[in-house]
Design goal:
This protein has seven helices and seven strands, in the order αββαββββααβααα. By secondary structure, it is of the alpha+beta class. It holds the Pfam family GmrSD_C.
């Protein structure tokens, strides 16, 4: 697994995004994309979501999901179990703001199954756990649940956020995560990413 990323910054675009790790610049993303190995995806045989232990305990009673809900939300109030009881969440994928945590998913920007197909089938359990709970890169973010569900395990060769203004950010984040973890891309995925990044 590749771990060459050197740092993150903070977004300051909207209150709900204030603590999100900023994706790399478009120029860096184009450079990183050109260095990624292009190959057909590995067989999904053997994949199981449980192989990527996720929503681990971060602090006290708070797991990864609850931590990201607090990070990405505005005015979030939690109970003794760390569950969000109120707040609002801006979803960058569709531009909607939700006021119930139950309407929000924590998306793995590069889906777990996609990571498996792109090289994670060969990782250790600890490496998969790190990937599934990575709060340092733009890999986890709170989004509208019924927008995230159709995305499922699709890559940019098939799926993009409906909000056009976010596509460049999404492409930069996708390439950053794949580069950091040494994951591969397929030809259709790379072409779609290149098309968006060239317009950033």
């Amino acid at each position: 697994m590749k771990v060459s990323y050197t740092g993150t910054a903070l977004l300051s675009t909207t209150p709900a995004q204030a603590a999100l790790p900023t994706p790399i610049a478009a120029s860096a993303a184009r450079s990183y994309l050109s260095s990624l190995t292009v190959t057909t995806e590995h067989s999904r045989t053997g994949y199981n979501r449980d192989l990527f232990r996720h929503w681990i305990t971060i602090s006290g009673a708070c797991d990864t999901r609850e931590t990201i809900l607090k990070r990405d939300g505005t005015g979030v109030v939690t109970n003794a179990s760390c569950a969000a009881t109120s707040g609002s969440w801006y979803s960058p994928y569709d531009g909607a703001t939700r006021s119930a945590a139950s309407d929000v998913d924590i998306d793995h920007l590069v889906p777990l199954a996609e990571a498996w197909d792109s090289g994670a089938y060969n990782w250790t359990a600890a490496e998969r756990e790190q990937f599934a709970n990575d709060r340092s890169r733009p890999q986890l973010l709170a989004v509208t649940d019924n927008v995230n569900q159709p995305k499922s395990d699709l890559d940019p060769g098939t799926w993009w956020p409906s909000r056009t203004a976010y596509k460049c950010t999404y492409a930069r984040a996708w390439v950053q995560v794949k580069h950091y973890y040494g994951l591969t891309v397929d030809l259709t995925e790379k072409s779609a990413l290149s098309s968006v990044l060239n317009g950033c």
